[in-house]
Amino acid sequence: MNCPRIPLILLLFSSVHGFQYTNLANYVDSHQEEYVEALREWVAVESDSSNILKRSELHRMMELTAKKLQQMGGSVNLIDIGNQELPDGQIIMLPNVVTAQFGNDSDKRTVCIYGHTDVQPAKLEDGWATDPFNLTEINGNLYGRGASDNKAPVLAWIHAVEAYKSLNMELPVNVKFIFEGMEETGSNGLDAMIQSHRDTFFSDVDYIIISDCGWLSRKPALTYGTRGNCYFFAEVEGPKQDLHSGVYGGTVIEPMTDIIGLLDTLISPSGKILIPGIREAVAPLSDEEWKMYQDIQFDLDSYMSKIGVSQLMYNNKVDLLAHRWRYPTVSIHGIEGAFSDPGTKTVIPAKVIAKFSIRQVPNMEPVMVKKQVTEYLHSMFAKRRSPNKLKVTMVIGAKPWIADIRDLLYEAGKAAVKRVFNTDPDLIREGGTIPIAKTFQDVTGKSIIMLPIGGFDDGLHSQNEKISRYNYIEGTKLFIAYLYEVSQIKKSSV
Amino acid sequence: MNCPRIPLILLLFSSVHGFQYTNLANYVDSHQEEYVEALREWVAVESDSSNILKRSELHRMMELTAKKLQQMGGSVNLIDIGNQELPDGQIIMLPNVVTAQFGNDSDKRTVCIYGHTDVQPAKLEDGWATDPFNLTEINGNLYGRGASDNKAPVLAWIHAVEAYKSLNMELPVNVKFIFEGMEETGSNGLDAMIQSHRDTFFSDVDYIIISDCGWLSRKPALTYGTRGNCYFFAEVEGPKQDLHSGVYGGTVIEPMTDIIGLLDTLISPSGKILIPGIREAVAPLSDEEWKMYQDIQFDLDSYMSKIGVSQLMYNNKVDLLAHRWRYPTVSIHGIEGAFSDPGTKTVIPAKVIAKFSIRQVPNMEPVMVKKQVTEYLHSMFAKRRSPNKLKVTMVIGAKPWIADIRDLLYEAGKAAVKRVFNTDPDLIREGGTIPIAKTFQDVTGKSIIMLPIGGFDDGLHSQNEKISRYNYIEGTKLFIAYLYEVSQIKKSSV
């Protein structure tokens, strides 16, 4: 990043000048019912990108998104990003990516805001208390699929721009939007689109803002890192077909016994990764970090009660947060090819594929993790002297992303939070992976901030997803304030 | 068993007397096209007991079976064995059990022959080379679902009785049949039916014959034992719902890690069961048994090539057969609740249920096995100091069955094999479980023989199931001879 560091106090001072925040905030407050209605309209569109039967709804969602931006006078494009090939060979069209631009003043900084308007699947019978596609307000919470992930944040950004325009206030920065419709299934087609628009759409972008995550507690947060994901398939193949366990059990070396033995060498009961080289590669925890974690508002008891467990892997806040965000971990997801239905089946599965992933962190490199895991599993397998065949494949190698929290984007974030919420934000990381952040970073070379407005308990991907009216409306104000604060970077740093 | 032992030579001598085997064998040879047509008609009925959509076909199959027996002049009953409750609460009728009786001479012994006319599922697209429900002859093999399991053996028994009747020869024994239609899904309703008919249908039965298994090689065999089956569910429950492995990985003690660790304590890579007490309970291998196994015709190389493996758990015949038939083994079948689909999913499963079974043998007791496994897993789990909850359940506790090979039923079997095939049979056991054998033994107190006519390579439950024309036709002759040989037990032993 190119900007010199300036003290927070300077930013705060400069930001007071000429910014009619109160007018804008009042406008938001007096229009909040319209914002809720806009969210209701969007939630009603079942834009589930994982279900091809809902593809027409997804296309409609992208058109609604584009229409909304057009009505605000933006320069809008619906970008064809090609087709999707289904496992059965069928070809279907990917949803268009929507881009929009508001303002083209070369004296101003240009921000690009990323979001998505596709959603995870949801069915009432999964255990929802209300119809997931009919936004329902209960005790100040707005329940519906996609409410927090990511429809309300996208709308909040749109409303933030709209507020400036409605009050005939000049936007403090040029604003570009890029909204996609395949995020929930891996952002199919987006990497190539970003690559091919590097020298056009992205050429004048200074900063990238992502609001596709949540706070850690009731306190606002800025997110400065995500873990990567090295996802492995370990396949053990034995007999040429499944065998009856009565007839053949005891005579063959069973692939399931082998794979269980291998999986059991990955991680200890206390969470220690046993693959040589992994732990050694991790960037050491600095005293500064330790101090930061110590200061974060985070209650272990409410975390436990939210998950429904009686004990966590670590019983102090710093260790827990560090292992959630900045240390690697191994999760075993399941085994394909074995018997997984209810009931009983007396089968010796002939070929089993274990799925596990390592959330990796700086300074681990996916290519090295792949080598370490593959060599280790093969050496463990050799010890078993099994005649079966082992194949280890890394099917995802998504890198972690980390921002420099001294970047002025974060200073602007702190100032905006202070203005709206009258508190300092927590500086947090995400344990999960948002690969698009790393793509933006690598392709555009620009600084990125993750500026969440979702609540810590919004239940993303789960039943009864919601966003609170408070987070939605105050979040809109936060975005308004942020557009101003980020514009101040230029003034102060040129 | 009540019969004194008599030397084989005496049986052979007495069996020559008055038995017009050649006439009967000629009759079978000259009617073999009709027998193949009868099998074709039966195979065409998709009597899949596991698929409720095929239930009307299954009812039709039982009616066809009854009709065939009625046409031969038997005293036939279709016995209502009640209803089946489906997982969704729906109630459907179980297929009737068909019983029949031929002859009621109190001076003769009475045999009861058990079989089933339901089949496993089959679809052409599963990898069948021919339509599974259209019997197709290729190179002397009759391909079709249920051909070997168990329609041809049932027909061979019916044709054996028919041959005597067509030639106006007196049946040497009274013959009773009991044919069911739920064998492939666990003989639902049959145990109760046997119990309730103990003092009626079964009261005058002397011997029970089951022909629902196969030879070990190209050599005919008599089967004198089956392993039991203790099937376990080991459930580990952690968080109250599935968690995102990125967001929560590293902070929770994952149920999958626990269950993998537990499963890995069951059996060593070399096949040694690690649960204390299990191996100690097994009846020791006697020198006699060792000698018997040594004499059995069994080729390790063709066994390996049939299964498609390059190495077996044991590389000598005696150890291999002993571990197939008379030693226990542990097979891990799979894990319910984990991710088992193709592709990737970044989930921490909240509750996982591992399925594994122990094929147990004399002198292991299911109730003791349950105790040993449960205590062992709980002690291993305690060492992990996991906050998750472990529940161990034994959902099947089917006992092994073993006959005394000195029983005259087996002497009769040897004589019949000698007469038809001019060789001595192998005396073999089944690694699998046929729980009905143990039920017959326990409820009726009668001696039981398993007299197989299926080939070693018939592919039961698999694609391209078949029976060879040779096994079907010579098997019919074997049954004809067996009815005579078993009648000689009475003469010689009274």
UniProtKB/TrEMBL annotation, chains A, B:
Chain sites annotated for binding Mn(2+) 2: H116, D149, D212
GO cellular component: cytosol
Domain (Peptidase M20 dimerisation) ranges: 225-379
One GO BP: proteolysis
One example GO MF annotation: metallodipeptidase activity
Active site: D118, E183
CDD domains for this protein: M20_dipept_like_CNDP
Gene3D superfamilies attached to this UniProt entry: 3.30.70.360, Zn peptidases
Keyword Metal-binding applies: yes
Cofactor(s) it depends on: Mn(2+)
Cofactor binding, per record: Binds 2 manganese ions per subunit.
Residues with site note (Important for catalytic activity): H244
Keyword tags: Carboxypeptidase, Hydrolase, Manganese, Metal-binding, Metalloprotease, Protease, Signal
Signal peptide: 1-18
Residue runs in coiled coils: none
Domain of life: Eukaryota
Pfam assignment, any one: Peptidase_M20
Residue numbers binding Mn(2+) 1: D149, E184, H461
Family statement: Belongs to the peptidase M20A family.
Descriptive protein name: Carnosine dipeptidase 1
Organism name: Hippocampus comes
Taxonomic lineage: Eukaryota, Metazoa, Chordata, Craniata, Vertebrata
